[in-house]
Amino acid sequence: MATGRIKKALSGFYYVESKEGETYQCKGRGVFRKRNITPLVGDMVTFDISGQHEGYIVEIHPRENELVRPPIANITQAIIVCSAMKPAFNTTLLDRFLVLVESKDIQPVIFLTKMDIAGQEEANLVSYQRDYENIGYQVEMLSVENIETLSVVESYFKDNITVIAGQSGVGKSSLLNAIDPSLLLKTGEISDSLGRGKHTTRHVELISLYGGLVADTPGFSSLDFQDISLEELADCFPEIRERRQGCKFRGCMHHKEPKCAVKAAVEEGEIPSYRYDHYLRFFEEIQTRKPRY
């Protein structure tokens, strides 16, 4: 028996890297299907070596967390990539990603790419950067065209299992290609007619990069909050979470309740109004969602 981490899943095979650095092509035991358990990229597993660099996964170790889209487990950090232009920066979409990441107890980092074509929008983007940094997020503003600016991001990967997420076309694969050209990740062209990119990444794979592991994940342009309850939503906004003790009523939802510390902070400009507007929008979305069977 040996232990290792699944670094790639493809066509029913799981490629497990052992603690000794060897990679084994493994199948999952039938017991997983019977128990409706699917091994995920990022899983720590115990496997039985059955041949030269081949084996069978016999146990999946407990997970710290997992995502459905992309299917990956034990993530420590999510780099959320947004672009200044093409597609335009969108705070609603960014906050959707942040809420999902926060709900999984994953550390988020925001990369804002394509600053070299921001033009007149640069001042607004710097203002947004200040807002998100005041909340406590790390924000890096990057120009993929200028590779020297990318040296600042290398330290984020060390000792982390990183998932890179963001709307299609924002430059996720391009960013990784610029950091390490040997990755040769396929990049997609922007569809001018749709204003968004085409899906180019076909499977999830953990790639060794700067002392950590990183997954270049399929781009997706919508997120639902199917697994997040109304009570959990406020905890996914750090600036709301840290003020809830100041509300008059325990269990305040920061919606229609009187003497709410969160609404007071919005009125006083301590919480950006667009962030609170997004909270209310997501609140209503969760409240009115149809049950999934």
UniProtKB/TrEMBL annotation:
GO BP terms, alphabetized: ribosomal small subunit biogenesis
UniProt binding sites for GTP: T113, K114, M115, D116, G166, Q167, S168, G169, V170, G171, K172, S173, S174
Domain CP-type G: 64-223
Superkingdom: Bacteria
Cofactor binding note from Swiss-Prot or TrEMBL: Binds 1 zinc ion per subunit.
Stored PROSITE patterns: ENGC_GTPASE (PS50936), G_CP (PS51721)
Family note: Belongs to the TRAFAC class YlqF/YawG GTPase family. RsgA subfamily.
Any one cellular-component term (Gene Ontology): cytoplasm
UniProt keywords, alphabetically: Cytoplasm, GTP-binding, Hydrolase, Metal-binding, Nucleotide-binding, Ribosome biogenesis, RNA-binding, rRNA-binding, Zinc
Protein name: Small ribosomal subunit biogenesis GTPase RsgA
Gene source species: Virgibacillus massiliensis
UniProt KW Transferase keyword: no
CDD domains named in the record: S1_YloQ_GTPase, YjeQ_EngC
EC number: 3.6.1.-
Residues holding Zn(2+): C247, C252, H254, C260
Role this protein plays: One of several proteins that assist in the late maturation steps of the functional core of the 30S ribosomal subunit. Helps release RbfA from mature subunits. May play a role in the assembly of ribosomal proteins into the subunit. Circularly permuted GTPase that catalyzes slow GTP hydrolysis, GTPase activity is stimulated by the 30S ribosomal subunit.
Subcellular location: Cytoplasm
Subunit structure: Monomer. Associates with 30S ribosomal subunit, binds 16S rRNA.
Molecular functions (GO terms): GTP binding; GTPase activity; metal ion binding; rRNA binding
Cofactor: Zn(2+)
Domain EngC GTPase: 73-221
